[in-house]
Amino acid sequence: QVLLVESGGGLVQAGGSLRLSCDASGLIFSIYSMGWYRQAPGKQRELVASIGDVGDADTTTYSNSAKGRFTISRDGAEDRWYLQMNSLKPEDTGVYYCNATTVVAGSVSTYWGRGTQVTVSS
After folding, report:
1. Distance in angstroms (rounded) separating the CA atoms of residues 16 and 99
2. What's CA 119's distance to the chain center, in Å?
3. Model confidence over 19-58: pLDDT tens digits?
4. What is the 3-state secondary structure (H, E, C) of 57-77?
5. Cα(105)–Cα(116) distance, rounded to whole angstroms?
6. pLDDT in the model for residue 29
7. H helices of 2-112, where?
8. 3-state secondary structure of 28
9. Which backbone phi and psi does 65 adopt, to 5 degrees?
10. What does the alpha-carbon distance between residue 19 and residue 84 come to, in Å, rounded to a whole number?
11. I need a labelling partner for 41 at 20 to 30 A (CA). Which of 11, 61, 89, 104 fits?
12. CA within 13 Å, CB half, 37
C-alpha cells in the first residue's frame, strides 16, 4: 500500500515556474514506476511525465507538450518525487496528480494522490 500526497500547486503567470512535490509513504520500495498526470475540465486525465524501472533504468517519459519545459526527478530514497515546470503556458492549467505503480508478489497496484491545482494566467 502506498499513500501519495501532492503539494506545490498554485497560481503563476505565463512564462513562470512551479515545482510540484509528491510525498509517498508505505511500501515505497515496491514502486516500479512513478509520475505525474494532469486533468483539465472536460478532458481525460493525461500523462505529463513519468519514471519507469525505478531504481534500475529510471527511464523518463514526457508528453510532447511537456518535453523541453518540464523535468521529473526523484530522491534517492524513492519516497519523494518532483515535477519542475518552467516556461508555463495557460494550456498547462489543470489538476496535477502524482501516481505510483507497485508490484508485490506479482500483484500490480496503481495509486493516486488527491491532486493539486495549477493555474497559469495569461
Report:
1. 24
2. 16
3. 999 999 998 888 999 999 999 988 999 999 999 999 999 9
4. CCEEEECCCCCCCEEEEECCC
5. 32
6. 82
7. none
8. helix
9. -70, -30
10. 4
11. 61
12. 18
Residue with cell 505510483: 100
> Could you tell me the three cell numbers for 87?
516556461
Q: For residue 33, which amino acid is it?
A: S
Q: Is 6 exposed, middle or buried (0-12, 13-18, 19+ CB in 10 A)?
A: buried
Q: What is the pLDDT of residues 66-101, one digit of tens each?
A: 999 999 999 998 899 999 999 999 999 999 999 999
Pull the grid cell for residue 117: 491545482
pLDDT for position 1: 87
Grid coordinates given for 19: 515545482
Residue 74 grid cell: 526523484
Cβ atoms within 10 Å, residue 25: 11
